[in-house]
Structures are given as C-alpha cells and as structure tokens.
Please model this.
Amino acid sequence: MPTIVPVLIAISVSHLLNDTIQSLIPASYPVLQQAFHLSFTQIGFITFAFQFMASMLQPFIGYYTDKRPQPFSLAVGMACSFVGLVLLSLAQNYPMLLVSVALVGLGSAIFHPEASRVANLAAGKRRGLAQGVFQVGGNFGSSLGPLLAALVLAGRSHTQTIWFTPIALVGFVVLLQVGRWYKGHLSELKTRPKSFGELETPSRKRVIVSLAILVVLVFSKYFYMASMTSYFTFYLMGKFGVGVFEAQLRLFLFMFAVAAGTVLGGPLGDRFGRKYVIWFSILGVAPFTLALPYADSFWTAVLTVPIGLILASAFSAIVVYAQELVPGKIGTISGIFYGFSFGMGALGSVVLGMLADHTSLGFVYQLCAWLPLLGVLAAFLPRLEKKKEVKA
Model:
C-alpha cells in the first residue's frame, strides 16, 4: 500500500487542533492564577487533572480499539474537548476548573490511539515519516497554544477561552472525514500481516528490557518537558522580570522548536535507525539543559531552541521502535506510550510544583537539567535488523 499523503495531512491537522486546545491549559495559567489566587501546587494539580485523565485511559482505549476499531471515536474525542473549553470559560471555582480540564484530557485520550493507527494505516512502508508527520501536527499545536493565549488572554479574564471553541468545531468536522476514510479501509487491517515482516523480532526477555528502557527515556523527556510547559513562563517572569505577554511568546518559541524537532525525528529514524535517533535526542540535549539555569535572559531564549529541537526528535522514533518491538499491537503500544508521556507530564507538574513551592523555580530547573543524562540507557537498546533472506 502506498503512502496516503492527504490522510496523513488530515490527521496531522487534526492533531494540531487537538494539541492546540491542550496547550491552552498551561498557557492560561498566569490568567487562572490571578483569577483564582492559585499556588504552584494547585497549578500542578490542574495539569495533573487533564493529563492524568488522558494517560490513564489511553492504554485501555488503545487495547480496545486494537480488537474493535472505532473510526468515529476521533470526532467524539474532539467533542469532549469542545465541552471542556466551554466549561473552562464558565468556571467560577477551582473544582469546576478541574472538571473542565479533565474533559479536555478525556478528549485527548480518545483521540490519540485511533489517530496513531490511522497514521500507521496511511503510512505504507514509511512508518517513521508517517509518525513524524502525525506528531508534528500535535507539536505545532502545542506551540500555537501559548501564542494564542498571549494574543487573546493576556490581561483579560479566563472567560475569553470561549473564543477558542471554533478550533474544536473545525477539528470535529475534519475528524468526521478522516473517520469515513478509516471506516472504508478497515478491511485492510484484517488482511495486513501482524508484524513488520522485514524485521527480526528480539526475544521476549529483550523486548521487555527494551520497553523498560524506553519507559525510562520517556520519563526523562516528559518530566523535563513538564518543567517547561507548566512553569517556564513563571520562571521567566520571576527571574528576569518579563511580562506575561513576553513570557508566553518565549514559551511559543520553545514549543515551535519542539514542533520542528518532531519533523526530523521520524525521517531520521527511517534513514539512520531509530536507536541512534533516540540515543542522540535524549542524551544530546544534556549540555543545553545543564547550561540553562545559569544563563541570562538572552541566552535563556537562545538555549530553549536546541533544547526543544533535539529533545522533540525522540518521541516519534520511540513510538515506532516500540511498535516494531511488539508488532500487531499498534493501538495498545500507541496508547501506552502516549498515555505514559501524558502521565509523566501530569506527575511532573505536580511534583515540580510542590518542589517549587518549597524551594524555588531556579532549583527546579537546576535539578531537571540532569534528567537527559538518562539517555545513556539507549545504548542498551537492540538494533532491529532486517530478516536474512533464505536462499533456495
């Protein structure tokens, strides 16, 4: 089957819209903090509410849809995010804030496993490219959230989040069309081989060890990402005295670099091997993260670019590598790794928020700077070799 580019573009655009909505949550923290007089711990629990919802449900949704694909669940997920945005704009108290962001998390949990399967179905033989195209939409969406928040919310009330609901409506329409294409190609899932047949599958023990290493690498990546997405604006305002608008623009710069890095990860994995991309993208960012806490305002902005660019190149390679380790379980593996990444983001936000309340954000960034050194573990991942041809 050839690569179906229009479908990949459509699922990438829908990922952009989905993750734009998600990124609006942390981008609105300065506004929410002022409106509800929140502590860093309470802000951490807001992140925990929507990311924990996404992380807990995704593996189960992925497992279920591996057995019973649900093409139109994609649109249902976007509808949940729409309701979450409406409730966020109407929120009058902290519990209502938690409910609204949890609905956004539910929408994301429903979206990602099936969307990843659509990307795989439309990929043909270019799985790394397809996963990269799919994920870059999400990362560009994550970068747009802070920019939109800076333009719409800065200096205003959280009630203005109602203006973001058209994003969910557009996503709903796009995903209805993707769902129709997906439904028309479900028969291909049944006729496809249950493995990436050109690759040798390692032993069960090595697969388990490799998955454990990947989990540790995802932990290091998303704990560090949590420090940036949840607290970077506060770090900039507190250390350098910048305003909310400028802080959100700098967060946009970082998230834009993350989006650009995602474009590179998938194709580079196809070309040079996913193991080496994973290794470089985690360990290679360490010099920049270690320098960041000691940089001035200008160099802080400069350093965020290579940090986002290099760190982001890991995830598409990790997901496809894990799918190749456990063939035939596209939805389950996608759900586990997307869910775990959100879970680590949620846990990281709470833990780092509590740590910041008891120490300082400066100390948080000094501590998190060491996390990328865990990338050395990628050296123990097996290189997935092509099967040797048997001569007659």
User: Anything to note?
Assistant: The radius of gyration is 20 Å.
